[in-house]
Amino acid sequence: MSRRTLAAVAATAALTISTGALAQEVKAGIILPFTGVGAELAQQMDRGMEQYLKLNADQVKPYKITLIKRDSKAPDGATAKIDTQELLTQDKVDVLGGYVYSPDAIASAPVVTAGKKLTVIMNAGTSFITNRSPYFVRTSFTLWHSSYALGVAAAKTLKAKTAVVAYSDYPPGKDSLDAFKKAFEDNGGKVVDAIPSGGPGQVPDFTPFFQRAKDQKPDVLFVFVPAGDHATAVVKTYAALGMKAAGIKLIGPGDIVQDIKLQGMGDAAVGLITMHHYNADLDNPANKKFVAAWKKDYGADSTPDFTSVGAYDGMAAIVHAIQATKGKMEGDAAVKSLLGWKFDSPQGPVMIDPETRDIVMNEYLSEVVKGSDGKLHEKNIGVDKAVKDQCKALAIGPCAPPK
Ligand code: PHB
Fold it and tell me: Which of 101, 257, 275 maximizes ligand 1 atoms within 8 Å of its Cβ, making it the mutation to test the pocket?
């Protein structure tokens, strides 16, 4: 060894010893749409992660998690892919998390596979996403969880015979249509029309889509749109067209009654039926604690929602992997540590399916009601326990196991 090499080795050793405390740092790259149409969702999820880290500070010790946040901007995948690349190659993160919109996760999948780091999907809900990279683990949901369960409930519990489906025309919207239609028709119902209704990039005028639905006089109008301002516009248009008075029930996955949007929907939302894994009214100890801490930190009128809980659970998953790998976070070991992982979430008990790396969780059937406080609430009227993503369970199309 030359003298210069020896000196370099000594210098590196000295640095390692002097920065002993820093060796416990784990860098997490967080990709969320902090600006643009998804900005409110990004804030809800950022706060969800913050709450996990605050309420569970003891679980994190002796490690220090540094969050490096990047804006994925428009929901088209282009910026998220660049963010993913840069976080892996320049910031050299140990783990990735976030991804609100499906195109962001889909576009980033090859980069994630090449980078070989655990990547926790905390929102994006197209079923096949987890098949696109072995490093993806999902703590959020798929549209097949909610919309399949709702298809069964629409036929059996609501006793609907006919439905029109209106959906945002991109991958999770197509999933919601396929899932609802399969379950509803397998249980005796009939989807009489399916109406592509704009995309995630901007809130469309839903009037022509819903007028077409109204003209067909279905028992139920099933709608999927990404949460946020899209959901408010759905309920407003449903009210403006007098669809409730015409006897058409509005139903959908819980994306259309996101908790932060509920109070702004007005009385038109009363009676709306949804199926989802979370709402802020859920009555369990972990949720009571979560909601109380949230209101204390962000204001009495603020509320967590399903996007927050996906991020809260996602951070819990990251912390579990850090502990299991003793902070090393080698990608394969980090993913392996989460197979079969169980967690007592504010949404109820959750597990990561060891076969699919997707979440297994309860689905709650809820009705929007007006409470004695004059506010809108979600009244839980039924529960399906430990629900798996049905697209992968039934091995439909791109949801079949990757070869
Ligand atoms: C998605 O793009 O996968 C997505 C976004 C918002 C939602 C649901 C799914 O509410």
Answer: 101
Strand-pair category, 95-98 with 25-32: parallel
Count Cβ atoms below 10 Å from residue 353 Cβ, excluding itself.
Answer: 18
Cβ of 284: how many Cβ atoms within 10 Å? 14
Q: What global pTM score does this model have?
A: 0.94
Give, using CA atoms, the residue closest to atom 7 of ligand 1. 226
State if residue 136 touches ligand 1 by the CB under 6 angstroms criterion. no
| Mean pLDDT computed over every residue of the chain | 94
Q: How confident is the model at residue 403 (pLDDT cuts 50, 70, 90)?
A: confident
* pLDDT tens string 53-76: 999 999 999 999 999 999 999 999
CB 112 within 8 A of CB 143: no
Please choose from 99, 100, 229, 389 the residue to mutate so as to test ligand 1's pocket, defined by most ligand atoms within 8 A of CB: 100
Residue at token pair 């709650």: 364
Name the one residue in this structure whose structure tokens are 């076969």.
355
Please report, rounded to a whole number, the percentage of residues in the chain having pLDDT higher than 90.
93
Q: Is the pLDDT of residue 148 over 80?
A: yes
- Token reading at 66: 């540094």
- DSSP assignment of 216-278 equals T--SEEEEE--SSHHHHHHHHHHHHTTTTTTTPEEEEEGGGG-HHHHGGGGGGGTT-EEEES-
CA distances from 110 to 51, 81, 86, 105, 327 (A): 31, 9, 14, 10, 25
Quote the ligand 1 centre to 348 CA distance (angstroms): 21
- Output the CA–CA distances (angstroms, integers) from residue 26 to 30, 122, 137, 223, 227, in the order listed: 13, 19, 18, 41, 31
Task: Using the predicted structure, report yes or no on whether residue 338 has a pLDDT greater than 50.
Answer: yes
Structure tokens at 46: 């950022």
pLDDT score of 402:
82
Nearest-angstrom CA–CA distance, 103 and 106: 5
Integer Cα distance of 78 and 33 in angstroms: 12
Q: How many A from CA of 57 to the centre of ligand 1? A: 29
Residue 7 is predicted with a pLDDT of 46
pLDDT of residue 18: 44
Whether 124 shows a pLDDT value over 90: the answer reads yes
Task: Determine the pLDDT at residue 19.
Answer: 45
Pocket of ligand 1 contains residue 101 by CB under 6 Å: yes
